[in-house]
Design goal:
2 copies of one chain form a homodimer.
Chain A (H helix, E strand, L loop, with lengths): L3 H4 L13 E7 L5 E7 L1 H10 L3 E4 L4 E4 L8 E8 L5 E8 L14 E4 L2 E4 L2
Parallel strand pairs in A: 1-6
Antiparallel strand pairs in A: 1-2, 3-4, 5-6, 7-8
Chain lengths: 120, 120
């Protein structure tokens, strides 16, 4: 039987045991994956309402607006949700580097066999 | 002190308590996010070695080669890893729809307020 969570148009996020879903952000212009993080229900609600990315920090155990201290806000142009509603895709215009290391994207290294190399 | 996991060129994935990292696959041509799934160490190793995406199915508790029954393999052109090495980004050429629903991407719905709408 078809699963209404997969086929329907009701927003019904499938939070995990910790109350979280996964969120991936890509750059609207370049298509580059910028970062991957997690959201609880409040982070998702705030992201939808304010069109600025909010996450849940698992290490700090706190709600977190991306860029609240750095100014490197992610302006959200579009939000998609996947088939089983346990992941969202944010299409964003970043106000600065997305990574806390200062790199544009957190994915700044390529896996080459059993080593890493700079991605560019 | 700089964390060598973040700044170095040693592959040192940070698996979670279940032995998994998150993997996101994007289409090399369109930039579209196709799917999000999880990998254990063996899935990552097989993906790197064969250049075809392998995952760990949390629901089935089994290693899973994407497309092993459907034929909709994801051919991996590039693999990136993020700053804290708990997520990988696969840049792929898909042999068919990535979603089990038959959609090209699992992210076929947009969040519009408290509802979903078809993404295209």
């Amino acid at each position: 039987m078809p699963d209404p969570r997969e086929t329907g148009l009701a927003l019904d996020p499938k939070y995990d045991a910790s109350g979280l879903i996964t969120a991936v952000a890509t750059d609207r212009t370049t298509g580059e994956v910028l970062m991957l993080a997690h959201m609880n229900a409040e982070a998702l609600r705030l992201t939808v309402e304010t069109k600025e990315a909010h996450f849940w920090s698992r290490s700090r155990g706190a709600l977190w607006k991306k860029g609240e201290t750095s100014g490197h806000v992610l302006h959200v142009a579009d939000i998609r949700i996947d088939c089983d509603q346990d992941a969202v895709w944010l299409i964003v215009d970043p106000a600065g580097p997305a990574c806390h290391t200062g790199e544009r994207s957190c994915f700044y290294r390529r896996i080459a066999g059993d080593r890493l190399v700079p991605a560019e």
